Amino acid sequence: MDAKPLLSRRAAAAIRRLAVDLLAIAALLAVAPARADAQQQLGSASGLPLPRYVSLKSDRVNLHEGPSKEHPTLWVFERAGLPVEITAEFETWRKIRDSEGTEGWVLHSLLSGRRTALVAPWKKEPILAYASDRATAVAKLAPGVVASLRRCDGAWCRVSGEGFDAYVKQEGLWGVYPGEKIE
Questions:
Q1: Least enclosed by CB within 10 Å: which of 28, 45, 145, 154?
Q2: Where are the beta strands (DSSP E) in the chain?
Q3: Phi first, then psi: what are they for 53, rounded to 5°?
């Protein structure tokens, strides 16, 4: 007598994906602060603060719907150095958000701790860059330019990139929190 499988392969795969999603949600709930005024949340896998900014390590990074390669690819990033914000962790996966609000999961090995920022991606006109935080403007940086964050004092950031090394008002950057200090 032949035994029939209880579930089709497709149904079994769907149940496995659902189980992974439920585990990810449980992990997120387990590390959530008990009170709104609790200390900063730490990632369950890395022990680092959540949320936090990082950058993409590779020119090709697949953004998945869930924390596994079995989940569909939602988007493919093609810009190494692009800043993204990690908002959650599940084992070797990180949930990220880009400057446009697109969210999904990537393998942690495709991310770098190197801090970068996008120059005012929400503006249409260039922003001014200065030789120092109190000098006259030396350049105009177009929206969407990726810059390496060298230092921020909470109001100004020293940024550098291809052909520039200057100071920009921190409020004109995506990839650094308001008032954040970076040494």
A1: 154
A2: 41-42, 49-50, 52-56, 61-64, 73-77, 83-90, 93-97, 103-107, 111-112, 116-119, 127-130, 137-141, 146-153, 156-161, 164-169, 173-174, 181-182
A3: -95, 140
Provide the percentage of residues in the chain whose pLDDT is more than 90.
63
The C-alpha atoms of residue 89 and residue 27 are separated, in whole angstroms, by 8
Residues 6 or more apart in contact with residue 136 via CB below 8 angstroms:
130
Q: What are phi and psi of 30, to 5 degrees?
A: -65, -30
Neighbouring residues of 91: CB distance < 8 A, sequence distance ≥ 6: 45, 67
Whether 7 has a pLDDT exceeding 60, the answer reads: no
Q: What is the rounded end-to-end Cα distance, in angstroms, of the chain?
A: 71
Q: Cα–Cα distance between 171 and 158 in angstroms, integer?
A: 13
What's the predicted TM-score (pTM) here? Answer: 0.75
The sign one gets for the Cα dihedral 97, 76, 121, 126 is positive
CA distances from 43 to 7, 24, 46, 66 (A): 35, 12, 5, 17
Q: Which two tokens stand for residue 122?
A: 């929400």
